[in-house]
Amino acid sequence: MSAAEFNHFYPVGTPVLAYPGIRPEDGPDDDTLITRTRTEARASSSGDVIWVDGHGAYISLTHVDPVSEEQWRQARIDRDETTAARRAALLDAIRTRPTGWKPERAAFALKRLGFGWVSERTARADLEALVADGHLAPVTEVVIRHYDLTGGA
């Protein structure tokens, strides 16, 4: 679909699923953004692109799927439930080996726990959420940072 066609059918603020990396059918799961368009689509040297809420760079229109409001709401509910289950499983794994948790290790553990491919960015967000909830304490050693189980968890 061209930028002009997209703009004709989908105004700014349209709910979309956007894939800034690769589309799910083209490889391992990458980040899926459940978001809305924040600009009109336009032509660029990279092809037709659009900007979406919550992402700083443009995304190719081939990586944006408009959805209904109901599909958008359900995707957010599903994501929130999956995130909660993933973080609970990660915390259980951390409790078995409570020190030295970096995003790479967390992503690998989550894959072993059946969550499929998890990006290091997602794993880092999960570790940071567990810090915010008081389960982990950040440990910085020179430039290396990892996470350990807190004494109260």
Report on the structure:
The chain has helices at residues 3-9, 69-96, 103-115, 120-132, and strands spanning 15-18, 33-36, 42-44, 47-50, 59-60, 64-66, 136-141, 144-149. By secondary structure, the chain is of the alpha+beta class. β4 (47-50) and β5 (59-60) form a beta hairpin. α2 crosses α3.
By DSSP, the count of extended strands is: 8
Ends apart, CA distance between termini: 51 Å
Look at the structure and give the mean pLDDT: 91
The secondary structure category is alpha+beta
Widest beta sheet: strand line-up: 2-1-6
What is the number of helices? Answer: 4
Shape: elongated
Helix content: 25-40%
Main sheet record: 3 strands, antiparallel
Radius of gyration, Cα only, in angstroms? 18 Å
In N-to-C order, the SSE pattern is HEEEEEEHHHEE
User: How much strand content do the residues show?
Assistant: 15-25%
- Can you tell me the residue ranges where pLDDT is under 50 for at least 5 consecutive residues? none
